[in-house]
Automatic annotation (TrEMBL), chain A:
Its main location: membrane. Pfam families: BPD_transp_2. The chain crosses the membrane at residues 12-29, 34-52, 91-112, 132-156, 176-197, 217-243, 250-273. It is found in: Cell membrane. InterPro entries: ABC_transp_permease (IPR001851), BCAA_transport_permease (IPR052157). Coiled coil: none annotated. Keywords: Amino-acid transport, Cell membrane, Membrane, Transmembrane, Transmembrane helix, Transport. Belongs to the binding-protein-dependent transport system permease family. LivHM subfamily. GO terms for biological process: amino acid transport. GO terms for cellular component: plasma membrane. It is a multi-pass membrane protein. This is Amino acid/amide ABC transporter membrane protein 1, HAAT family.
Length: 287, 357
């Protein structure tokens, strides 16, 4: 029971973080990024290769994070920005094309075998009462997830974050008062790529990742983002955690075959009942 | 909200016939249908249509089975894209359940035939079932717009494919089921299927042309560009949005029934993202909201698929790169290229000279 909850919170943290990455890019650049998990995968594989070549763990981690951010900025500048005046459809397709290409590139360079990013604590476990053991990597995932959520919330309270919200609210008015929308979208993509790298890296230090794993991760990330109505950071975070726990319970007590369907059902219900995300209306003061 | 209002304002401010960048305010690079582009008398167009049809009719007599199969597949995808384009291009709703509704057509027809319903009758029947399903899927359209609708419909489409996998007694589950191929009496199967596909495609294109170039198509465009504002003109935006969903679902399923006949064996994994992505590409390349774009888009995608078939591992990377390149170079789709050339100064000068003579 406790074990199931902890596993649920662990995978929930991944979903929540990826959902937050999606929301950040959606807020500032108005793009639903289907390639988010693939961006994280590329960054993580760079880190894995460095670690395998003998680079110290923390430097490999740092390199992974920087790679994620750089990929984000490059994608924004090279591909996305010039499409933004053509409406939603080309943007959506571009991220899908990017997903295919990045995934194929990873497969070409690193192969399709599952890999892990072993951390110093991988495999270690903490014994708690009743013979239940909780992996340290699980605790790391949950704590990093929490820190990530707090950090992003704090980021949106800074001046840059406030400008980002202004652009999301109304792009042309924000530009009129001197906000550089281009710089902000680059920052948002950098933050998004950074968080995506963190997410896939967390997944890789606890489980295996391969070219197949981003496909389901991105769906769950989108489910989490949907629960926050693509705007609420809190809603996305809590939604991701809840999704992870629901999933683990469904897997443990019903069947792992229907896990995916349950996630889809959650999206549908949220969109029908609370299309603005389920935390909407709870923040009455924030007008 | 204010964003929408601005987009409308932007769409209005642009003079007609300006390039795709001007029309971007409408959310999707849209085409202006009537007027200049439809030059020539209707009899001439009718003659062209008949010549094209005759040429297509002759294909099985002159080409080998492989070519016949490829042309059939192109026609099936063109029909399917016709429906997808109606939804995405003409009504401006990014619904992503199209591959699933396509699957409903393929499965519906195959199961119907197994239960003794004549194949030709299963085509409209599967279409109606899918239209009802599409209405249910489009129901979130009452409250959702843009990407939210895209994600909701994507989820529902995936759920349909999951259901097909679970309904093992009926569909054979994930292992798939074989399709009884119907053939016209006295002809080999490949050619027979081709003729059925050709006939259905011709009918669908004729009907859709009638509908889209007339009042219905224009109303759809008005609903796309103005949204709820059309209410003040006595047009229920909601009703048109839902009708677009139902119609596109119907067409998807009709194409799906033919697809099943062509493939002769179907399984749920055929109808997931790996089908949805090419479908999106076909709409995009053809130009969202154009009339003949679906044919161009389908042909492009088929050529691409056949061309990259031998690449093996590099196939996916080639798809991704070509898609990215196509979007970067031509954000309005391949057919926008023709229009851009047509709108260029050089062509304008040529036209003027013609008039002068």
């Amino acid at each position: 029971m406790l074990q199931t909850i902890v596993s649920g919170l662990e995978s929930g943290s991944w979903f929540a973080l990826l959902g937050l990455a999606i929301v950040v890019v959606m807020k500032a650049a108005d793009v639903p990024n289907f390639a988010m998990a693939e961006m994280g995968l590329v960054a993580t594989y760079v880190g894995i290769s460095l670690a395998a070549a003998g680079v110290p763990f923390w430097i490999a981690v740092l390199a992974t994070l920087i790679t994620g951010a750089v990929i984000g900025v490059l994608i924004d500048i090279a591909l996305m920005r010039r499409l933004s005046s053509y409406g939603h459809f080309p943007l959506l397709l571009m991220t899908i094309g990017l997903t295919l290409a990045l995934n194929a590139v990873v497969g070409l360079i690193w192969g399709h075998d599952p890999r892990s990013f072993p951390a110093p604590w991988t495999g270690a476990a903490v014994q708690i009462g009743g013979g239940v053991a909780i992996g340290v990597s699980q605790i790391v995932s949950i704590i990093v997830g929490l820190i990530g959520a707090v950090a992003i919330t704090a980021f949106f309270r800074t001046q840059v974050g406030a400008q980002m919200r202004a652009v999301a609210e109304n792009r042309s008015t924000a530009r009129l008062i001197g906000v550089s929308a281009g710089r902000l979208s680059a920052i948002a993509w950098a933050v998004g790529g950074f968080i995506a790298a963190v997410t896939v890296m967390l997944q890789a230090q606890s489980a295996l990742v391969s070219t197949l794993s981003p496909a389901s991760l991105i769906i769950y990330g989108f489910v989490a983002a949907t629960m926050g109505g693509f705007t609420s950071l809190l809603g996305t975070f809590v939604g991701g955690l809840a999704l992870g726990v629901i999933q683990q319970f469904v897997g443990a007590y019903i069947s792992s075959a229907v896990q995916f369907s349950v996630a889809l059902l959650v999206v549908f219900l949220v969109l029908i009942l609370r299309p603005e995300g389920f935390t909407k209306g709870m923040v009455l003061r924030d007008v | 909200m204010s964003e929408t209002a601005q987009q409308v304002a932007a769409a209005k401010a642009v003079p007609p016939g300006d390039g795709p960048s001007g029309l971007a305010g409408a959310g999707i690079a849209a085409n202006t249908v009537p007027g200049r582009t439809t030059g020539g008398s209707s009899t001439r167009k009718g003659i062209i249509a008949i010549i094209v049809l005759l040429a297509l009719f002759a294909v099985p007599f002159v080409a080998n089975t492989y070519v016949v199969f490829v042309v059939s597949l192109t026609l099936v995808y063109a029909v399917s894209t016709l429906g997808f384009n109606l939804l995405v291009g003409w009504s401006g709703q990014i619904g992503l359940a199209h591959a699933a509704l396509f699957a409903v057509g393929a499965y519906g027809s195959a199961i119907g035939v197994e239960y003794g319903i004549p194949f030709l009758l299963t085509i409209p029947l599967a279409g109606i079932v899918a239209a009802v399903l599409a209405l249910v899927i489009g129901f979130p359209a009452i409250r959702l717009r843009g990407f939210f609708l895209a994600i909701a419909t994507l989820a529902l489409g995936m759920a349909i494919v999951e259901l097909l996998t679970m309904a093992r007694p009926l569909t054979g589950g994930g292992g798939g089921m074989s399709v009884n191929v119907w053939s016209l009496p006295g002809i080999t199967t490949a050619a027979s299927t081709y003729f059925v596909v050709l006939a259905v495609a011709a009918i669908m294109f004729f009907l859709m042309r009638r509908a889209l170039l007339g009042r219905f198509g224009r109303t759809l465009q008005a609903v796309r560009d103005l949204g709820q504002l059309t209410g003040s003109l006595g047009v229920s935006a909601l009703r048109y949005r839902l009708v677009a969903f139902a119609l596109s679902g119907f067409i998807a399923a009709v194409a799906g029934t033919l697809y099943g006949q062509l493939q002769t064996f179907i399984f749920p994994a055929m109808f997931q993202m790996n089908l949805l992505v090419p479908m999106l590409v076909m709409v995009f390349v053809g130009g969202a909201g154009s009339m003949w774009g679906p044919v161009v888009g389908a042909a492009f995608a088929i050529v691409l698929i056949e061309f990259f078939q031998d690449l093996g591992d590099q196939q996916a990377i080639a798809y991704g790169l070509v898609l990215m390149l196509a979007i970067s170079v031509l954000p309005g789709g391949l057919t926008s290229l023709a229009r851009r050339v047509g709108d260029s100064r050089f062509m304008a000068r040529l036209r003027r000279r013609e008039v002068a003579e």
